Amino acid sequence: MSYINDVLEKAIRMNPGEQEFHQAVKEVLETLEPVINKHPEYARAGLLERMTEPERQLMFRVPWVDDQNRVQVNRGFRVQFNSAIGPYKGGLRFHPSVNLSIIKFLAFEQVFKNSLTGLPIGGGKGGSDFDPRGKSDGEVMRFCQSFMTELYRHIGADTDVPAGDIGVGAREIGYLYGQYKRIRNAYESVLTGKGLSYGGSLARKEATGYGLVYFVDEMIKANGKSYRDSTVVVSGSGNVAIYAVEKAQQLGARVVSMSDSDGYIYDPKGIDLDTVKQLKEVERKRISEYKLIHPQAEYHKNTERIWSIPCDIALPCATQNELNGEDAKLLVANACYAVAEGANMPTTPEAVDIFLKEGVLFAPGKASNAGGVATSALEMSQNSIRDSWTFEEVDAKLKEIMVNIFNNASEAAKEYGYENNLVAGANIAGFKKVAEAMLAQGIV
Ligand code: NDP
Ligand code: 2IT
Questions:
Q1: With 90 as the cut, is the pLDDT of residue 230 above it?
Q2: What DSSP element (H or E) covers 331?
Q3: CA-closest candidate to residue 265, choices 274, 256, 253, 278
Q4: Which of 246, 274, 276 is nearest to 258 (CA)?
Q5: Domain end: 140, 160, 190, which one?
Q6: Which of 183, 201, 237, 348 could form a disulfide with 379 if both were Cys (CB 3.0 to 4.6 A apart)?
Q7: Residue 433, SS3?
Q8: Candidates 165, 283, 347: which one to mutate for ligand 1, based on the most atoms within 8 Å of Cβ?
Q9: Residue 58 and residue 154 in contact, taking contact as beta carbons nearer than 8 Å
Q10: Nearest ligand 2 atom to alpha carbon 375
Q11: Could you say which ligand is closest to the alpha carbon of residue 318?
């Protein structure tokens, strides 16, 4: 369709070299054709041109002093992509690979994901090329304080509410919050994923991983399957991966593998999650050390081969483009019947095509990992009413939200001729609410 092609070409032209951003925009636009055909008013209002251009993109210097008294300079980012349905909301990523393309693709995806949650949150993302690995607590604190010393002027409880992502967990959120409060002299809900002692929500830590597993449960149940006695492979061993494994095990699955950026472990007896939590959450060590405690496990010093392990369900929970076409073929050959993205855009477009063609149940991250940001929005609600809900209350709401996302994405897919294609269904369901809001608010 020429309108969609024109918008895509323009987005590529205006953002040269931003490969991840191009990939994310292409994937969404390609699925919107039947919606645009049905609603010519969207094209007349320039909706797609506006939706692919961030409202605001911030880049800033982050200087800090390391433990050897050397000056270090990193680059900070915040992309405020779309505020049609609520304040910008989305995580901060600290990882050496971070650049504008990565932050922009994440912010773009976040717009649709946040819309899918049904809660009033717009989309944004930020971060830095700072690498927390190997840094002391003092270095991380000084970096976070410097980062917030610029970021604070752009965010606020009703403006933009960051949270965690890769490399940003409870420790970093604490330092960032402390500095914000100190500069602004205000105790406001400006970050989520906060510690429980200062306004955090129970179940936020677990939410992305648990939500992923709830989503998959709904998806496989609709196809007559269940977790019980299924074999699951999970990549990553961070926040999302750990709590995906926890919930999958609670539901009776045997999880046999986890990884980090150096390699993966294979434990045919089933992963001992207490060991992984101790290594990763407490000691900040490498996953290779699992084998020292569980000698029956194998450790493989590469990350790619993880998808060659036979499994029923695959949950990529590490990072973008970690599962490619070759991996997809291996998974299909090994009779894997469901793949769900815990990470953002972990599956390459070739791999997604293979899964859809081969009838593998496939859940796109926008839908299946939305439980984290949904629970962040629940944290904002609790902060607003100065209350805190029990774990069970938050978990029940999370579960309901994931079931609704599955149903809405499935129904949107069916309505627009994409039956059983949750990629298209999630894009369309997420898009429609933002589109209606933008149309109502005029050319802004
Ligand atoms: P963490 O930092 O807690 O964990 C990231 C995990 O992925 C680590 O095991 C890390 O290994 C691995 N990893 C990171 N980069 C790479 C890489 N380039 N190659 C291989 N492995 C890598 O992050 P999260 O668990 O929070 O995030 C994981 C994914 O989930 C990301 O895509 C994130 O955007 C997404 N997500 C997170 C949400 C949240 O609430 N936290 C919500 C929704 C999505 P190592 O330690 O060696 O770096
Ligand atoms: O990708 C994501 O949805 C997140 N990193 C969580 C964002 C949030 O605001 O909780």
A1: yes
A2: helix 325-333
A3: 256
A4: 276
A5: 190
A6: 201
A7: helix
A8: 165
A9: yes
A10: 10
A11: 1
The residues near 224 (Cβ < 8 Å, ≥ 6 apart) are none
The label of the residue with tokens 């994405």 reads 409
Asked whether residue 358 falls in the same domain as residue 218, the answer is: yes
- Written as six digits, the tokens of 409 are 């994405």
Residue 229: pLDDT band (50, 70, 90) is: confident
Q: Would you say 90 and 123 are in contact if contact means Cβ atoms under 8 Å apart? A: yes
Other beta carbons within 10 Å of 424: 26
- What DSSP string describes 87-124? SEEEEEEE-TT--HHHHHHHHHHHHHHHHHTTSS-EEE
Q: Are residues 212 and 358 in the same domain?
A: yes
Q: What is the pLDDT of residue 444?
A: 93
Q: Do 218 and 351 reside in the same domain of the chain?
A: yes
Distance 47 CA to ligand 1 centre (A): 32
Closest ligand (CA of 166)? 1
Q: What is the pLDDT of residues 279-297, one digit of tens each?
A: 999 999 999 999 999 999 9
Q: Is residue 106 part of a domain?
A: yes
Domain residue limits at 175: 57-190
Q: Which of 138, 160, 190 is the last residue of a domain?
A: 190
